[in-house]
## 1
Amino acid sequence: MPSAHITFDQTGDKIAGRIRKMRPSAVRSLFAAAVRPDIISLSGGMPDVSLLPEESIRDATRAAIEDERAVALQYGGTDGRLETRQVVCGLMRDLGVRCKPDEVMLTTGAQSALDLIAKTFIDPGDIVLAEGPTYLGALQAFSAYEPDVRCIPFDDEGMRMDLLEAELERIGKGNPRLKFCYVIPNFQNPGGVTMVPERRKRLLELSHEYGFMVVEDDPYGRLRYDGGHMIPLKALDARVVYLGTISKIFAPGLRTGWIVAPKDVLARINLAKQGTDLCGSSFDQIVVEHYFTDTPWERTLQRFLSVYRERRDAMLGALDEFFPPEARWTHPEGGLFVWVTLPDYVDTGSMLGAALDAGVTYVPGDSFYPDGVTGRNCMRINFSYETPENIVEAVRRLAKVIEERLELYRVFIAAGAIKAPEEAEASENATACANSDGSAPVDQSR
């Protein structure tokens, strides 16, 4: 009869303190549930690679295998293959950014670029500014280096410059601890909002005034469904550190991203990359190079845009039809995500189990804040991967779960067990007034 074996972790006391502080990615944790046949996933940020033409993939891959096999299967330079960097320069030129190959470094996806930037510039306790909420993968990459991440709220026009200026005044000019501001100006993840030109200009002005770098992450810039093209920050200021990727316009499985930055900045990052992975995949880079050189990729991109636009519209229409009046959400002009805000008393993290039982996933909002607490009444939902029919059904299922939570609170409010949201807010405001001037709050119930 086989005996049971219990295995104990014998390395627990040897784990680095920075790893103990890191949180797992909520998206990665949901991957196992997302593949269940009964689940409709609104959690991931995956492009629909089934839209890619088989012939284009075959041609680009064959070029790497048949024409350049000796190079494709060999080590490469740390900065990446020159010919692929030249292709990146062409892609950047389409966006309004002029750069040279020696101002480009290829990375193992833009996620690797985030880690390299953090590794190069962040010491424990350094200040990093970001939108709030912000990309959870960036928070995870930064957290290994133990920064003080301070989130600046956004509205429909992007990061609020008045709140950024107030935070910068608290930090002070010339503060050596202030390292950079990380922003996703186009169709922000998770918010879906786009920074307007006036705020882009003001952000760059403040970066010069207070002496911090701007790191522009632009994975979604080409995925615009409405409105006109927004000029990247990098096109307005050569000192901006720009991150790009092929993951959302080609294939995320070919882990290829890039950093466009001044040569002195890239030289520092190059040192960090040497110790991280020596070099990227030459095979992946050659496939990417031939895809964007030898295939009608712009036509495929237009297909992506058409399909994603339809799916976004399906999601926004379903939210209008099924979600309760207490809910609010963003209306993205592009990208992959919608940000939903529910009443403060709803915890989307604790609600996730009920959503899984109902056959739908999303990402709880607290995953997008460094404290893991803020945003608990919010969620990110994705529209790029599922069909319009599945999206409508998923939103319907999710609305039912939310309605059950709200109905429970409505019963408590009617019974007087808890205050209605507007009453609680009035009470908090009164207390705040009392704390600010030392006087007692005015009783407004009479």
Note: The two ends are 77 Å apart (CA to CA).
## 2
Amino acid sequence: MLVSLILVSVALASANHSGEDFEGHKVFRVTVEDENHINLMHELASTSQIDFWKPDSITQVKLHSTVDFHVKAEDVGTVEDFLEQNDLYYEVLIGNLRSMMAAQFDSHGRATGHSYTKYNNWKTIEDWTQQVAAENPDLISRSVIGTTFEGRSMHLLKVGKAKPNKPAVFIDCGFHAREWISPAFCQWFVREAVRTYGQEIQMTELLDKLDFYILPVFNIDGYVYTWTKVYEPKLRGTDEIKTIPILIISSTSTFRIECGGRPALPRLELPVLAQTLTETLMLVENGASTSPCSDTYCGSTAESEKETKALVNFIRKNLSSIKAYFTIHSYSQMLLYPYSYSYKLPQNNAELNALAKAAVKELASLHGTKYTYGPGATTIYLAAGGSDDWAYDQGIKYSFTFELRDTGKYGFLLPESQIRATCEETLLAVKHIASYILGHLY
């Protein structure tokens, strides 16, 4: 879902019950057409334990939209009765969550090392960053911009031919733990940079004239959590699945709290945007919460988390050279630009709109994948604390959020068989925007 540097918290307690295997869990999509439907969704959210997929929370539900949410098996009947009794139109996107989880690894056979067409765990990605930099010293350098709450190094790859005073593009992936296709794209970008430099005209020009800062996984602790608690037992051949990434917006495990007697919950979102009390109140109005037990907790202070501080400090330090910011997410098939926390438009709205339109056309040219584009607030929903909004307000005038495949059939569980096509088409859009920036440096 939409990147939220403000909102990094999620209900893990509900996912951690021993023996829960997600058999019979469902994902619903409800169509919201009027104010009564919104009120009914609020009622449902207050009386049933549902996990919002899109939008991130009940406060972001708006007219003439759809709402995707996950329901536990024991609550499915109650939810279906409520929807039918109130004449709410709905469809079942995923009829059995456990089966869909198994289908995510549909490429058959796990590679022992790193693979660009499979989902890689953090240790594999970390080793890959070292290897790809060592093997391509004329094109890639690796640095550490900070550490996570749990002490993991945040590795950044600088991709481009070494020349002084080059403009740069910053790309981050893996903000949200459940969005595994996102880190896959950052890895794919580096692969294609190495593979096609000196062979393909456009990529060669981009790497000669631009530097690309690639943060393969921003939310490392959360990403590790989804692997160690969810998939590694499965990959070892056991049937036990103790939790699931779709129950985690993005865990950084940076702020543990007690909520009503339940087990301590990891702190998940990373506050960035709000700098004043007035801005914090605006964020709360637009989907963030001041409750530490909320999935959308806005944090104690702006930039309160180690990961956030590392990211924003690096961008601020290099602000004079960074001309574009891309943050990669899923799902929805959208290309968004500021603003998301407000309905106001950026100063260069016409330029950003035209650029996004051209980029999604380029993306669709390969596999026919259709993207929606526009300002975040009107294109998807009001969402406080977006990193693209923050980057834009720092002076980075080309700031975009990519919401990758799909539109709901798989949701956050996009199969490995779609990694290649998803990354190929996304790369076309990224290269198009980067080439445009070369001709419009500021």
Note: The chain has two domains: 1-8+110-442, 24-95.
## 3
Amino acid sequence: MSSMYSLSQTVMPVPCKGSLQAKVATANLRYDRVKRITPSNQDIPAGFCSYSVEQQPRYLPAGWSPHIQPEGQRYFACDSALHVVTEANLYLPEIQDRIEYWTREVNTRLAERKIGLPESAELFLELDEYSDSCFYYLVDHAFRVIFWLEPTTTTMLYLMPSVSLSHLRLALEEQYWSHLEFYPSHRIERLSLRLPELINVFLHAQVDTMTSNVSTFPYNAADCEKFLGILKTIQDEKTVIDGYSVCTLARLWIMVLHNQHQTHHGEEVARLSRDQQILESSTPTRRRWLYAPLRHLLFKIPAYYEDRLEDLFTDRIVYIHQWRDFMGECREEWKQYGSWTLALLLFNALLLIAPGTSTLVAVASMFVCNLAIVSAAALFVKHQRLTTYIASDLATHLKDEQHDVTGFQSYAIQLSLPKALFIWAIVISSTQALFWLQSATNGFVPAALVAAAAAFCVLCRACTLVRSCVASLTSICSRRGEERKDIFLTLA
């Protein structure tokens, strides 16, 4: 295969000692670069950018042109036999040599393997900042996927696991749209952006989220309506699609494809509702020996939070709007019970000076009130920023809180502390009535009340045991009857 372009007719690029390594579009390091710059004062020539001619023009190799991504990142594209895209600074001669070397290397491998790429193919190159190696992937705009020249695995590329080749294709198409989001300002007229289909996706999602509380779409109905307004504006008012429109549509397609891969869209086992678990759990949740008594001591409030957290993080997938609603409820609850606990604390402090009050009960209630207030404040501080997290950050947070064996048991206990401790403080404070009665009646009425309460508890427990025994006997009799019926039918 002939060379894609020629940077120099006489000087061959110096061979690099590094290697050509596969990568994916989402592994782009543009948002994590460590390189720093120092702005300085500049001399401004007369007529700068007007009548004055640039004294030192910046030249690019033949076929290359600069472009700017809507976010501001500059990149370069080469329109030749095989289109090339790179963010490397081609205004520097040494960078030009390295890009030419790796482009020739790709062309050599294509020729050796007798691979003929379609006209819709595009090569992306990224020079390694710490070595002479180069990262690459190839894009097919006709089939909307990225691919490589060597066999590789999803593990090596840090792609999400898949269950089939069609499922894997969704992940590769997501990478394609990520490439288009990063480099949208060239070859625009040759792109198929599938705008009508994207509008239909959001129309269906809007209806789905309005009619179901367990929709698998990552946005709620209000967000879908806003996105539809943007998409219809692009469709109706934009006569020419530019880089801004391409970047916008690509980003929305990324979200749609990522969601489809997570929900196994089009597969034999697809996630049809948000709370539907379709993945095998390698380690089923086990109960800690302390969890059962703690759950009862905390009035089974942790069980509610554990169920909510399991529902929010089904198959380790979290939806932002569902999490924000949950966090809103939690923060409101912590605020409410924190204020009630503070009022109860002040009430117990006043009781210390009242006649006939038990100091021990008042101090114990005040201690529990302090624990409730501290736990509410700690939870507020811990979750202060979680309402603004993106989905990936929320997933990381929930993975850290979810134990491999016991699940969300510890986290559920933490979330339930303000409410449960407030109830305990109320229970302890209410025993002050017994001491007031003792002071007024010389102890006869409180003793009678305590005895009555104990008898009531024993009676309730006895009723529960009798009911359990009756249910067991009924089950045994029913099973014996079925066994006799089977024996009779066998003999007949």
Note: Confidence is low (pLDDT under 50) at residues 1-13.
## 4
Amino acid sequence: MSPVKVAFVTPGAYPIPSGNSSSVERVVEKFVPLLRPSVEPRIYGKIGRNLPRRSMVNDVVCERFHTAKRSAYVANVGHALKKFGPQIIQVENRPTYLLKLKRSNPKAKIWLNLHSSTYISPRHISDTQLRKSFALADRIIVNSEFLRTLVLEKVPEARMKIRVVYPGVETRRFQSRYTAEGEAARRHHRERKGLAHRKVVMFLGRLIPLKGVHHLLSIVPRLIKVHPDLLVVIVGSPFYGSHRTTAYSRKLIKMGERYKKHVRFVPYVPYSEVPGWFMAADISVMPSGKREAFGLVNVEAMATGLPVIATRAGGMQEIIQHGETGYLINQKEIKAELTEKLLLLLHNAALRRQMGIKSRQRVEQLFTWEHTAKRWLKIQRNEVDLKFRDDPEQFDEQIYMEPPPVPDLNQGIAYEDEQVISYDMGFINLEHLKATSQKDGG
């Protein structure tokens, strides 16, 4: 049986491969090659400096186009798709592309893979267009249960189309510090970066208000009173692949200047350098706002054996196990709880190690690119196997059958410790579900 042809259409914001791209392109670059040989994938994206019009990326054909005008980019991709003849076209994070691509390739099934809530917001797409796009999609993939719920609030009629597929991490690149090789790498990075003999709290991400770095900087005075050897390292810039600043990032730098011995800013670094920064840290902090759909950076930090403190927001609640791999803190009490949990971890090296080991284990169990590819292939196989469409009972037996947006905590869910095992092979924190249920009157 010949492999299914699948086209992956990226937004056209960044080329592939690129060390300066967003997580959207990274997800495509890392997991798509793992679909072979079951699938014959092809990637469509932006042409970049020193990149040819067409080349192989990890044994996958990648075709590139100019993207100065997005309408022209989508049209050119549509023409190229006709030549390839895919059975499935997966559009990455741009619902507006579905209408044009379906029009130019009517015989192909069309999937939408949402990486965030940004491009389903009114700023980017009208409610009418959104509903048309979702009606046109044969399958809608989201990267968290949180994003699934958000989508259902906007378009409840799309419920039966939605599947959750978590992104992952390369565990060989993001190695554990709890091996002989990892310990040596950690010593190397700490010495090279001038972090030896310091307790290092790390934030790595974009310097935008949503990420909440100002909360971390505001509690530095309280932390250094107890831990004078503390160094808060802020790695990132407002924009991908750029050192440009904004009013917000300049405000952060001004806040940090008061404590120069305890705060260090490192402008945007290429993705290849990210593992080294996490290896050099002792604790990772992500005080993001409620719109964080997944938070891949938390998985990357956990892969290196770091405990993570993050806000009880968005998809991060599905990654971090409170009290096991780190802590989830409430946004309304963010400064007080962040201070409390940081002081606890800074004081207790054994607890940091215990949580760090569990972090690495959780990543290996749930959040690798191999897991991502496996889940995607199960969805694809159900899509091409038409038997279940004539047999509702067989369809009901599939593990991907969605629970309601806010699950009934007394029915249809398997409990294991303090987690809910979802039918999408993902894990949701039970505490979060209970809180959501109570909020909604459940």
Note: Confidence is low (pLDDT under 50) at residues 386-442.
